[in-house]
Backbone:
């Protein structure tokens, strides 16, 4: 499968937003996200709310009044039309048809072309029409024929005797602009038409019936018109409308009075809701603070435990000691996973779940996921099978970190609940609308399976199915709930089918945008290259790095992780010292902790960027923080940081950050194992 559309590289690049002022401003919740408000903006919005309520009531009152008047006017017009149609169809049509039956179409056409009052046909037909008019009691009965586009002629008028005011002589011209549109429709549709009640300046309020006159060839050569006086009908309907309007005005005055009385109650209720909203915003801010502090306080010691364990594993130790250290590291990693799940769940519950799309390599993402799970599967002697087509698009746009989190959760669960057999990971891609593509990931295992009655509880928070059977399996029961929330946030969902005792199949679907539609190629072939490249590594003995960290244990861990790269490390314990060091000497890279005494990392980064020198504005500054709740990465980037590295520091993530910011001309071949020949970090 090859995607049908390719996006232009760079189309998703954007500049970092402007920095935010120090302090903790007020927040609001909109669209599931917590947004900051300055105090001035917040007060202005609070003061304007009663005015907004009044405006809304006024607009509603105006719209309601307009709607009522529109209904009255519409009903009145409808009454006019209904009465006119009843008169025309019930009374006027028989009269007009009777008159049309007396008229010879060919003789009428000849008379219309050469009007001659001495023509015997004219006088004979005029008298016949006059008798019909006198017998029926209609107001006018006449015939007309076209003369020009805007003027027609009276041909035979049976409305009165010659000499009367109501009589129109043969050939009298009549502008048809005042006539109802049904008059012209008679010619166009060749069928009887009924007018509305309309006004003519000369004859007053009328309603008319028009019947076409046909010649021997079937062409319409004129019409028979029958008019009735509608003045009385018009007056009665107008009087009825006036009564309706007066009653409406009385009702609206009463309604306005009640609204005025209710507005006070509404305003009081608004003040109450405003206070509740203020408390809710304060609670949201407190929850955000709690998440940030909890993340920092838990992840900081976890950084030390995991970091020290990794450093200890690099030292020559007895096998038993290495086994103990590995146990400590595994337990700390499991605990960190539980903490991350709880923090993610708390972020979702507080409406702080965000998806940050950016271009990523599809093969790289899928390889990273399978590489991590393959190690866990091999530890349990489980076969990890993959089915990833080579023609999947090379590069997509989406939140690669969130997708990795979803896949790792599904694959890790499959390995976790499979004692023997296999775990199979499949990927499919189908084109969508435009540049979109629908990804489907299938994780199949031969594990213990799930009972049908337990499937509805599978995606519930803190759900652990068959706890007695699954004793010893770590987890808080949040992974699947978080994975489904993330999948739904990306336009997809997660489904599951399972047979108890024979395994399960999880299917995750989501929508991405194609960035590079060229095939990704064989991921299996890429695995060897990536593995070889990772084993090669690099060193950078010429690089000057400033490490800013207030805790000595964290400094020790960071220095130990940086030692294989032979980077020259300068350390300090707060932001103020970091600013002075950057002012006095150049650095290739700065690792800046977030929460520190004297001056924290955000303030220090702003101060460095404001020093004015070009090197200070362009120098890479990487945020080191144990505060890994959702939205922190964006906060750091908005405040002048170049990148983000969360604690506990992962060796692969550290390697990726160093490779990203250390220029290629300062990298050297793989560093030797740390020993006497390695350049030790320099501390100042």
Residues:
């Amino acid at each position: 499968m090859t995607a049908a559309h390719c996006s232009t590289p760079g189309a998703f690049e954007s500049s970092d937003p402007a920095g935010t002022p120090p302090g903790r401003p007020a927040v609001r919740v909109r669209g599931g996200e917590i947004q900051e408000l300055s105090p001035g903006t917040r007060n202005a919005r609070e003061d304007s709310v009663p005015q907004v309520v009044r405006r809304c009531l006024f607009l509603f009152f105006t719209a309601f009044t307009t709607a009522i008047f529109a209904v009255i006017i519409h009903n009145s017009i409808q009454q006019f039309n209904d009465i006119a149609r009843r008169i025309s169809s019930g009374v006027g049509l028989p009269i007009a048809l009777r008159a049309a039956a007396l008229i010879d179409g060919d003789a009428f056409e000849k008379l219309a072309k050469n009007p001659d009052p001495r023509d015997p046909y004219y006088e004979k037909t005029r008298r016949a029409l006059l008798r019909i008019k006198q017998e029926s009691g209609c107001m006018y009965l006449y015939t007309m024929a076209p003369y020009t586009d805007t003027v027609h002629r009276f041909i035979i008028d049976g409305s009165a005797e010659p000499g009367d005011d109501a009589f129109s002589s043969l050939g009298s011209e009549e502008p048809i602009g005042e006539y109802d549109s049904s008059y012209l429709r008679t010619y166009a549709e060749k069928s009887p038409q009924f007018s509305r009640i309309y006004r003519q300046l000369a004859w007053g309020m009328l309603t008319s019936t028009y019947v076409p006159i046909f010649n021997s060839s079937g062409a319409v050569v004129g019409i028979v018109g029958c008019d009735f006086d509608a003045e009385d009908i018009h007056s009665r309907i107008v009087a009825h409308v006036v009564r309706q309007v007066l009653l409406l005005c009385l009702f609206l005055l009463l309604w306005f009075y009640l609204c005025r009385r209710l507005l006070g109650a509404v305003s009081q209720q608004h003040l109450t809701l405003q206070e509740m909203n203020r408390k809710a915003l304060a609670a949201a801010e407190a929850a955000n603070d709690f998440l940030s502090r909890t993340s920092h306080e838990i992840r900081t010691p976890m950084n030390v435990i995991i970091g020290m364990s990794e450093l200890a594993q690099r030292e020559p130790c007895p096998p038993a000691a290495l086994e103990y250290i590995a146990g400590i590291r595994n337990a700390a990693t499991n605990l960190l996973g539980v903490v991350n799940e709880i923090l993610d769940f708390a972020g979702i519950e507080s409406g702080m779940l965000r998806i940050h799309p950016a271009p990523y390599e599809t093969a790289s993402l899928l390889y990273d996921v399978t590489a991590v799970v393959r190690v866990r599967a091999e530890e349990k002697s489980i076969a990890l099978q993959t089915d990833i087509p080579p023609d999947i698009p090379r590069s997509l746009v989406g939140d690669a970190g969130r997708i990795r989190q979803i896949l790792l959760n599904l694959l890790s669960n499959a390995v976790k609940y499979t004692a023997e057999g296999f775990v199979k990971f499949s990927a499919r891609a189908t084109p969508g609308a435009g540049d979109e593509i629908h990804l489907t990931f299938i994780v199949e295992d031969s594990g213990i399976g799930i009972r049908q009655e337990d499937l509805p509880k599978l995606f519930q928070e803190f759900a652990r199915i068959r706890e007695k059977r699954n004793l010893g399996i770590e987890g808080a029961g949040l992974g699947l709930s978080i994975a489904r929330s993330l999948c739904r946030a990306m336009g997809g969902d997660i489904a599951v089918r399972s047979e108890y005792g024979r395994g399960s199949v999880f299917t995750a679907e989501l929508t991405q945008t194609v960035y590079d539609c060229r095939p990704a190629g064989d991921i299996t072939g890429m695995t060897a290259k990536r593995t070889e490249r990772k084993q090669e590594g690099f060193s950078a003995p010429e690089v000057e790095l400033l490490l800013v960290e207030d805790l000595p244990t964290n400094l020790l861990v960071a220095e130990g992780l940086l030692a294989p790269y032979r980077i020259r490390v300068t350390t300090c314990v707060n932001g103020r010292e970091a600013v002075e060091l950057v002012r006095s000497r150049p650095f290739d890279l700065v690792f800046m902790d977030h929460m520190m005494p004297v001056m924290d990392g955000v303030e220090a980064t702003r101060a460095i960027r404001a020093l004015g020198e070009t090197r200070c504005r362009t120098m890479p500054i990487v945020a080191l923080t144990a505060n890994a709740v959702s939205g922190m990465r964006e906060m750091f980037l908005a405040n002048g940081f170049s990148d983000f590295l969360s604690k506990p520091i992962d060796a692969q993530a550290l390697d990726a950050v160093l490779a990203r910011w250390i220029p290629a001309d300062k990298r050297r071949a793989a560093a030797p194992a740390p020993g006497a020949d390695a350049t030790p970090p320099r501390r100042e």
Remarks:
- The longest strand covers residues 503-519.
- The two ends are 57 Å apart (CA to CA).
- The first helix runs from residue 39 to 101.
- The mean pLDDT is 77.
